[in-house]
Amino acid sequence: MTRRSGPNALAATVTAALAVLVALLAIGSLAVGPVKLSPLTVVQALAGFGGEVQQIIVQQIRLPRTILALAIGGILGLSGAALQGLLRNPLASPSLFGAPQSAAFGAVLIIALGLADVRSFALPAAAITMAFVSVFVLLAVAGRNASLLLLILAGLAISALAGAATALVMNLSANPFASLEIAFWLLGSLEDRSFRHVMLALPFIVAGGVLLFSQRAAFRALSLGEETAQSLGIDVGRLRLIVIAGTALGVGGAVSVSGTIGFIGLVAPHLVRPLIGHDPARVLLPSALAGAALLLAADIAVRLIPANTDIKVGVLTSIIGVPFFLYLIVRERRALGGGIA
């Protein structure tokens, strides 16, 4: 009994610590900006007390941005952990395999064609559809037991195709101002977001998260191998479809309001595994919390970094994420006994 409860108790402790960290970062996100507010002022404004100006700043300007950082970071971390559990590959992530880029292409396409504006529910619908297509194509092309090299090549191909298609749409756009706005949106940002954006993205993010988290027991069985999982009653084909649908819903909804924010889904699971172990079922919730914490911290950082223009949060996460990704590749090469020829 003690040996079983040990890992679960540790995972619960780490999860609680991450939840506290996320709460503190959320308060920090509400406090940081052109008008600096104290944590006490933030709490009072949230409760409806204090000055009217402070309440407007916290409730109407900063709260939607903070909610989106929580939700988007959480679904990216959860999607990364789910894809790594499904493919049994530590380098799996939504951004690596082209889901955000494809979702961005779907959103940009209907904006450029004038079929919807940035506040229309058609935007997340188009983003989700293209994210679903990209993940499905990845699994269809690479196969269930794909090697790391094959997964990376397939993901790079999908990402490149989606990026080229997005560039083509922008190039053919008749409105140069729309192209410029799309280009800045693609960099990934939570600036100037309202509760309209929260209502656009949150239902899809929550639905995707519920689908992914509902398969935690199946991920644990799958870690023993597909044949063993099937002998335990796991329908692997159904599991793949659920993960595809959950990733497409969550990532598509996130990208539709924030643009492309990369590497959160890759980094978050690796941050929590050394603390709670490699059980894919226990990694899901901590990864979601770690993803939320990472995006909240990055969004706070872009407001604190002195610059003449606003730094996009997607740029900052990429700057941090690329070296981490290279480190993971080197670590995997060493684990496989590879070397420089």
Q: In total, how many domains does the architecture comprise?
A: 1
Cα-atom radius of gyration: 20 Å
Can you say what the CATH homologous superfamily is?
ABC transporter involved in vitamin B12 uptake, BtuC
Largest sheet, in brief, is: none
Describe the structure.
The protein is mainly α and 341 residues long. It has a single domain, classed as ABC transporter involved in vitamin B12 uptake, BtuC (Orthogonal Bundle). The protein is 77% helix and 0% strand. The protein has helices at residues 2-31, 39-46, 52-87, 99-112, 122-142, 148-172, 176-186, 195-213, 216-222, 226-231, 236-258, 264-276, 280-304, 313-335. Helix 1 (2-31) packs antiparallel against helix 3. The mean pLDDT is 86.
Secondary structure blueprint with pairings:
Layout: H1 2-31, H2 39-46, H3 52-87, H4 99-112, H5 122-142, H6 148-172, H7 176-186, H8 195-213, H9 216-222, H10 226-231, H11 236-258, H12 264-276, H13 280-304, H14 313-335
Key words describing this protein structure:
single chain; 341 residues; mainly alpha; ABC transporter involved in vitamin B12 uptake, BtuC; 14 helices; 0% strand; globular
Task: Summarize the entry for a quick read.
By secondary structure, the protein is mainly alpha-helical. It has helices at residues 2-31, 39-46, 52-87, 99-112, 122-142, 148-172, 176-186, 195-213, 216-222, 226-231, 236-258, 264-276, 280-304, 313-335.
